[in-house]
Amino acid sequence: MDMSPSYSGIAYAMSNTLTCAQAMYLSQIIAAILKNGAISNWKIVFYLIAGISAASLSVFLIFGTSEEQNWDQSTETEDIKNKQNLIVKSEEIKKSRM
């Protein structure tokens, strides 16, 4: 949310979708690896998960940043318009309740 306040919901939904898809497919892959029941196959599973985690970390380290993005910064006039709209709407709600 800190990097893109306006699009945090969309960003979270996309990352959560990818995580769930990965979990769904990874569980099937792990089941296939462990099919014969050998304990030594767990080493393959752990290396596979470590590799996926390392790849994800590498992508973030190369392309990621912790600064707010330019495409998400709003201008002051937009903020003022939004605040004025909220004030007007809250006043309308108060009047309608009376």
TrEMBL record:
Upper taxonomic lineage: Eukaryota, Metazoa, Chordata, Tunicata, Ascidiacea
UniProt GO BP: monoatomic anion transport
Keyword hit for Transmembrane: yes
Protein's name in the database: Major facilitator superfamily (MFS) profile domain-containing protein
Compartments, record wording: Membrane
UniProt keyword terms in alphabetical order: Membrane, Transmembrane, Transmembrane helix
Residue stretches spanning the membrane: 12-33, 45-64
GO cellular component: apical plasma membrane
MF terms in GO: transmembrane transporter activity
Its membrane topology: Multi-pass membrane protein
